[in-house]
């Protein structure tokens, strides 16, 4: 009897394994001669450029370390819990890029995460979002990429250990976590909301950074836009769980996404800065407004604004106390010497370019990551508000100094419990950031 059960189990396993291999297998798509760039209509290329900017293609397909690399030629390093991945070359080079890819091969990669040869792509490439894009947008993006300069450049080898380096396993990942199919408009919402949802859920793949992930690095469907840690920064919640005392209204979101600075919430920094300045600043204003409308609706901002006036008044009152704080308090002296001159607000609203810290995400998140990152990195004149910079305090503040300032701000600017292990966390982030380049300027 036991032998029969074992035999049946083995048979079922063989059938299941064979079925999975059949499911996972994809044929190679015949390579083509590199298309003549002049063959693509100018209007398609122009639309494709907008699609590329909305999806930040350059950001993840251009090497950023060691002096950078040619645009779209790949080799951008992405650290994962399983090892490092390096993005591929998506210029139309015929040997190291996608110059021999037909539009059908390109569309399959965007919709299903499978390359021209039939190999599965690692889901650091967010095809789970791109599957929602329209065929027109995919076609236009293909036209744009195929008219870019061809760059002959290979990327560094991924460092994923066995078995995570087996691409066939990604078929199982996709089976578990990807719902293929184009975006379907929600008739209960207006056209602007649906346009914003289409962009946010698809091309712009906002959830790739702002949704927490499970142990297999898939976005948690139970916690959409609840916030997540990205490269040592915290991408804050984009829903009603965002903890800032003044809500992110549609106007605040629009200003932040379009210009990189929101009057009440401060400047974009870290990984979010290029999104506003380098990409969303180059797409139609109506599309940025649609994204802001979508997230303001998700945030239920219109029904939560009743608290804003009191929160703003409390924030400005706290800001005024800094200049008259007790001089014997080391934390107060540090804040007054390093921060107060640029973050003090005396009027009825924060001055643009003088962020009110009591309203900033950085102080209200569960961990001090973003506050420390800005202290260590600073904010360049091209990163936040145009022409206004914050210097790096990497050399000017010790870990103990940063901890004192963080504790002081958390206590005086929020109603939340104190952060813990502040000095140790400062040391950990400092080690990860490393010293800024000697010739760095802001």
Automatic annotation (TrEMBL):
List residues binding heme c 3: 339, 342-343
Q: Any keyword Cell membrane?
A: yes
Per UniProt, the keywords (alphabetical) are:
Cell membrane, Heme, Iron, Membrane, Metal-binding, Repeat, Signal
The UniProt record lists the Cytochrome c domain at: 43-149, 191-299, 315-413
- Cofactor details (free text): Binds 3 heme c groups covalently per subunit.
Give residues annotated as binding heme c 1. Answer: 57, 60-61
Q: Where does heme c 2 bind?
A: 206, 209-210
Protein name, entry field: Cytochrome c
N-terminal signal peptide? none
- The regions listed as transmembrane in this protein's record are none
Cofactor(s) in the UniProt record = heme c
Q: Name one GO molecular function term.
A: oxidoreductase activity, acting on CH-OH group of donors
Q: Which domain of life is it from?
A: Bacteria
């Amino acid at each position: 009897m036991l032998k029969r059960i074992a035999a049946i189990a083995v048979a079922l396993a063989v059938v299941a394994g064979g079925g999975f291999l059949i499911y996972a297998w994809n044929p190679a798509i015949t390579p083509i001669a590199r298309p003549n760039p002049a063959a693509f209509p100018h209007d398609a290329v122009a639309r494709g450029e907008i699609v590329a900017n909305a999806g930040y293609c350059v950001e993840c397909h251009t090497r950023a370390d060691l002096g950078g690399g040619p645009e779209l030629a790949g080799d951008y390093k992405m650290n994962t819990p399983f090892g490092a991945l390096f993005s591929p070359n998506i210029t139309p080079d015929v040997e190291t890029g996608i110059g021999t890819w037909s539009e059908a091969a390109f569309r399959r990669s965007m919709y299903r995460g499978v390359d021209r040869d039939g190999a599965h792509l690692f889901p650091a490439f967010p095809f789970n979002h791109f599957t929602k894009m329209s065929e027109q947008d995919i076609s236009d993006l293909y036209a744009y990429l195929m008219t870019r300069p061809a760059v002959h450049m290979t990327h560094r080898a991924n460092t994923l250990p066995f078995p995570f380096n087996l691409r066939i396993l990604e078929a199982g990942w996709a089976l578990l976590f990807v719902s293929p199919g184009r975006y379907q408009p929600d008739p209960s919402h207006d056209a602007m909301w649906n346009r914003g949802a289409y962009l946010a859920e698809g091309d712009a793949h906002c959830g790739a950074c702002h949704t927490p992930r499970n142990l297999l690095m898939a976005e948690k469907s139970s916690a959409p836009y609840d916030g997540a840690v990205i490269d040592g920064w915290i991408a804050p919640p984009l829903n009603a769980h965002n903890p800032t005392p003044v809500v992110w209204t549609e106007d605040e979101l629009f200003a932040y996404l379009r210009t990189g600075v929101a009057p009440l919430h401060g400047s974009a920094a870290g990984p979010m800065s290029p999104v506003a300045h380098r990409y969303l600043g180059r797409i139609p204003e109506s599309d940025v407004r649609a994204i802001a409308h979508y997230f303001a609706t998700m945030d239920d901002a219109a029904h939560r604004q009743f608290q804003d006036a009191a929160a703003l008044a409390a924030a400005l009152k706290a800001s005024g106390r800094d200049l008259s704080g007790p001089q014997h308090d080391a934390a107060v002296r540090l804040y007054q010497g390093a921060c107060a001159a640029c973050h003090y607000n005396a009027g009825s609203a924060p001055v643009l370019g003088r962020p009110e810290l009591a309203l900033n995400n950085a102080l209200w998140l569960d961990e001090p990551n973003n506050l420390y990152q800005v202290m260590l990195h600073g904010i360049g004149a091209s990163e936040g508000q145009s022409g206004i910079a914050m210097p790096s305090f990497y050399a000017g503040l010790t870990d103990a100094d940063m901890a004192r300032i963080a504790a002081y701000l958390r206590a005086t600017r929020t109603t939340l419990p104190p952060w813990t292990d502040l000095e140790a966390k400062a040391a950990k982030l400092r080690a990860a950031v490393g010293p800024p380049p000697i010739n760095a300027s802001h």
